[in-house]
Amino acid sequence: MDNSRRSFIKISALSAGSLALTTPALSAIGNNFSLANKKELINAAKNLKRSATYCEVCFWKCAGWAYTDENNNIKKVIGNESDPHCNGRLCPRGTGGVGMYSDNDRLKTPLIRTTINGKDTFREASWEEALTLVATKMQEIKDKYGAESMALLKHGTPGSHLEHLFKAYGSDTVAEPAYAQCRGPRETGFRLTFGSWVGSPEPTDIRDTKCLVLIGSHIGENMHNTQVQEMSDAIDNKATIITVDPRFSTAASKSQHWLAIKPSTDIALLLSWMHVLIYEDLYDKEYVKQYGLGFEQLKEHVRTFTPEWAYGITTIKPEQIRETARLMAAASPSVIIHPGRHVTWYGDDTQRSRSIAILNGLLGSWGRRGGFYFKEKISIPKFPHPPYPTPKWGWEEIGEKYPFAEMGITNEVIKVTAEKENKKYPIKGWFVAGTNLINTVPQHIKTKEAIEALEFMVVLDTMPMEITGYADVVLPECTYLERYDGLRSATNREPSIALRMPAAKPRFDSKPAWWIAKQIGEKLGLSEYFNYKDFKEVIAWQLEQLGTSLEEMEKIGVKNFKRKSGPLYLKDGEDYEFYTPSGKIEFYSQTLANHGFDPMPVYTAHEQPPQGYYRLNYGRSPMHTFSRTINNPNLNDLKDENKLWVNPKVARIEGLKTDQKVWIENQDGIVSTFPVKVRVTERIRWDSVYAYHGFGHNDKKLTRAYGKGVSDTKLMSRVSIDPMMGGTGMRGNFVKILTENPHKDTEI
Ligand SMILES: Nc1nc2c(c(=O)[nH]1)N[C@H]1C(S)=C(S)[C@@H](COP(=O)(O)OP(=O)(O)OC[C@H]3O[C@@H](n4cnc5c(=O)[nH]c(N)nc54)[C@H](O)[C@@H]3O)O[C@H]1N2
Ligand SMILES: Nc1nc2c(c(=O)[nH]1)N[C@H]1C(S)=C(S)[C@@H](COP(=O)(O)OP(=O)(O)OC[C@H]3O[C@@H](n4cnc5c(=O)[nH]c(N)nc54)[C@H](O)[C@@H]3O)O[C@H]1N2
Ligand code: SF4
Ligand SMILES: [Mo]
Question: Of 44, 59, 701, 707, which has the maximum CB count within 10 A?
């Protein structure tokens, strides 16, 4: 790889052209979920200019106010009181979002790959040159192979601007890691059962629940704002919390029941819960009778799945399985078996999600107070443009092997790209916008092979992340605090919209994605799709259609609308048709049977770690979002490295002490690049080790994040693919612990 044309550019760009403004790094404001703290912030912000925004540090999209001083320095961001996504409070990451703006490691100018003395490097380029090159290459690919051969891999708001460009250009070869690396299986599982996606934010009525069951979903470390707030209210209201997690998570520490399940065995537990509810006659009989389909088949299906059977698989005691099932039934219908969010674990994830959906069906919680409410959103009028051309193939055809895929499967796009000789779906160019594929998609060696096969790759990012090192052209986007973006239309109990406007001029020579998409579009002869000078005009037009205005939104930031679709919950005995083929909650899925899949979920055993190996488990650091915030000066201050959690028993066997530096090597001989410190703790089972995702950056341009901790993604050379929707189960990787530096004699 090292001598290849597209080798990773580690060295810094030729003269970084330091234009750095001297923005003092604001120290992050710890846990900002408190209102007292908020008053202080408002007082301190009196002389500052206030601009409406919504957060891009994660995808909950909390609306807030950014405060800017007279020198164009953004000083702080606080939550918008009328926003149902945050109720006026941002999470620590959102508060620290200012660091995305103030980070001097940011991408500063367009870069073009070049070779000097046989070595690949980047040279600085003007926007005109860089965008002309991008448009020329996109046109070349279109002429040679068809526009479909140019793929868009995206995440976050920049993606929607690029998606518009791609559709106008003629490509629907689009994928994002928020599907096949995140929530895809859950959406399919719930769609097959209730006829509807769970969606984001999840319509879980946690605020009013009497019993919340978390299956690996680690709310509290997973900081999705209103879920954390509502869970904290539910705890105050004495709701029962049951957490199923091989690790003693923050949520587990707040739970009456922590079920320390043997990893990969959740379906067995879920089936035995169904068994108890049905055979102890605890399920919601009226609800099931009125809305359910296939209950008798389900009853027969789970007959032998007793708690004793599940005990042998899950290591959870039969009496605990019975007791927790009874607690759920006692709370029914105000009970939530949480669907989770990142659910690509073991490859049978759609069926696990189906099990979760079926349990909710048995408990009568869908459409009930304290269960799941019926969400509603406002649809934002489309700014007029000519119809898009119809591509000959796109994400759907690429994922044709997976009948229930409802979005592009990133890993399939990568796979097809690597097959240079693929005549059916030849992918020759990538536009990567806001996703750090190297740290995001498992089997990074395959990603690198795909990149190697490309004729052209452009990356749009705010930071010199790993993925930028493989690009032919790097485009520096300004941060969310420096730009307009599409209106946020949120599904919630009540619909709302939120405005994002620039709080300051873009630092360095960075530009917003809308502008970049428009420039490229114009160079490709697609001006009629970009019939505006400034994206602000699009927003102003849309707001007028919605009966408000840009002026009003600049003042209020968030506008709430009344519900139009009817009440939040089902009325007792109400006639209701679910969006499934039968119009019922499908305990038995004929659709699955027709496709040759099990119509009801089945437990299958997964491989367990061999002698001397531990399962690599991972999750969220409360202070960070994936790999994107590790270098953020404010958030890096709060947490600058991850640790490897090991059980005391493992520590004894391996002879490890807290803070000792170790390396890990997986089942395929892949070794972590950097050492990681050990944390000896009872909070993790002895058969697994645990690390926060996102750390272990290996790009030196990330001055704070480089070399800190271990990258879980690098160790994921094995995936279990979900046969229904193509998701990449990532939790079947096993590691051994190395106490000696394996890189002693090699240069990293
Ligand atoms: N090993 C492992 N892999 C995972 C996960 C895991 O837990 N472990 N989690 C999975 C999940 S749930 C998800 S949703 C995905 C997330 O996957 P990604 O969204 O790819 O996550 P990040 O690594 O944060 O990469 C985001 C990229 O966007 C850039 N960026 C941030 N803001 C902007 C912006 O405003 N404009 C532009 N143009 N770029 C921006 C960042 O600098 C970064 O390079 O990862 C999945 N992959
Ligand atoms: N702070 C922060 N919050 C975030 C994000 C972030 O980057 N940072 N990202 C957001 C995004 S996009 C997503 S998708 C969500 C993801 O967050 P969630 O959907 O809540 O959780 P996961 O990442 O799937 O799960 C991590 C938990 O699963 C447990 N686990 C591991 N193996 C098993 C098993 O076999 N069975 C069971 N029952 N549990 C197991 C782990 O111990 C860990 O506690 O978080 C969101 N919130
Ligand atoms: S949950 Fe936190 S990081 Fe995510 S959008 Fe809200 S404030 Fe931002
Ligand atoms: Mo996610």
Answer: 701
Q: What one-letter code names the amino acid at 647?
A: N
Q: Is 617 in the pocket of ligand 2 (CB under 6 A)?
A: yes
The pLDDT-based confidence of 745 (bands split at 50, 70, 90) is confident
Ligand number nearest to the C-alpha of 204:
2
The yes-or-no verdict on residue 505 having pLDDT over 70 is yes
Residue 292 Cα to ligand 1 midpoint, Å, equals 38
Cβ(581)–Cβ(698) under 8 Å?
A: no
DSSP structure class, residue 486 = P
**35 pLDDT higher than 50:** no
Of 491, 552, 625, 498, the residue nearest 53 (C-alpha): 498
Alpha helix stretches (DSSP H) within 69-183: 92-95, 98-102, 127-145, 157-169, 177-178
Q: Is the pLDDT of residue 338 over 90?
A: yes
Ligand with minimal distance to 59 CA: 3
> For residue 341, which atom of ligand 2 is closest to its CA?
19
Pinpoint the alpha helices (H) of 7-126: 35-44, 92-95, 98-102
**Nearest Cα to Cα of residue 677 among 695, 694, 666, 662:** 662
pLDDT band at 18 (very low <50, low <70, confident <90, very high): very low
Decide: 407 in ligand 1 pocket, CB within 6 A. no
**Can you give the C-alpha Rg of the chain in angstroms?**
25
Tell me what pLDDT residue 23 has. Answer: 23
Query: For residue 429, with 0-12 CB atoms within 10 Å meaning exposed, 13-18 middle and 19 or more buried, which class applies?
Result: buried
Measure Cα distances from 538 to 54, 155, 159, 498, 533 in Å. Answer: 18, 22, 17, 14, 9
Nearest CA to ligand 2 atom 34: 263
Distance CA 62, CA 234 (A): 21
Give the separation between CA 485 and CA 54, rounded to whole angstroms.
10
Pocket test for ligand 2, best of 255, 615, 620, 687 (most atoms within 8 A of CB): 620
Counting Cα atoms < 13 Å in the Cβ hemisphere of 182 gives: 17
> Does position 19 have pLDDT exceeding 70, yes or no?
no
pLDDT of residue 273: 99
Q: Is the CB of 38 under 6 A from ligand 2?
A: no
Which ligand is in closest contact with the Cα of 628?
1
pLDDT at residue 34 greater than cutoff 60: no
pLDDT (tens digit per residue) in 457-504:
999 999 999 999 999 999 999 999 999 999 999 999 999 999 999 999
- β-bridge partners, 461: 476
Q: How far is the CA of 359 from the centre of ligand 4 (A)?
A: 23
CB 711, CB 677: distance < 8 Å: no
- Looking at ligand 1, which residue's alpha carbon is closest to its atom 26? 435
95 CA to middle of ligand 1, Å?
Answer: 19
Q: What 3-state DSSP class applies to 515? A: helix
Q: Which residues form ligand 3's pocket by a CB distance below 6 Å?
A: 55, 57-58, 60-62, 86, 90-91, 93-94, 223-225
CA of 335 to the centre of ligand 3 (A): 26
